[in-house]
Amino acid sequence: MMEVMLMCTLIAYGSNNGITKNLAMSLSEKLDSEVDVRNTKYNSSFYLDKYDNILIGINLVNGEISNEIKKFIENNIEDFQFKKLGFFTINKDDNQINKIDTSLPKEFKNLIDFEGHFSKEYFDEMNSFVETLNQKLA
Q1: Which of 19, 73, 113, 134 has the fewest Cβ atoms within 10 angstroms?
Q2: How many angstroms separate the CA atoms of 127 and 35, rounded?
Q3: Beta strands 64-65 and 34-39, pairing class
Q4: HSE of 67 in the Cβ direction (CA atoms, 13 Å)?
Q5: What pLDDT, on a 0 to 100 scale, did the predictor assign at position 95?
Q6: In this prediction, what percent of the chain has a pLDDT beyond 70?
């Protein structure tokens, strides 16, 4: 009898005020796979072999990507090469998005294939979901 392997997803996030954590938890409930949700504040290096997919919740601290998220990305960049990657943020301001874009390591950005994994409809649905969550949390 052949064993069926479930896809497993890690949602790693940084959060200072709980908003990114709440979004990570809500996202975990929407995924059709086994999901582990971990805060990088307590550990910036996880054993990633069991994960097929990794979503990273990026938070900003004083306009910069949090040190925990930076460490998580730097500590795991080699392992990320064999995973499907994505990231999310609660930041919608163009300046904040540009800051995230310019702060992420090039090696990391090169591993993310937005075209292959996300459609415009997905982005529209996700933006609506984030907006609704932000309104509920406010």
Answers
A1: 113
A2: 21
A3: unpaired
A4: 2
A5: 80
A6: 75
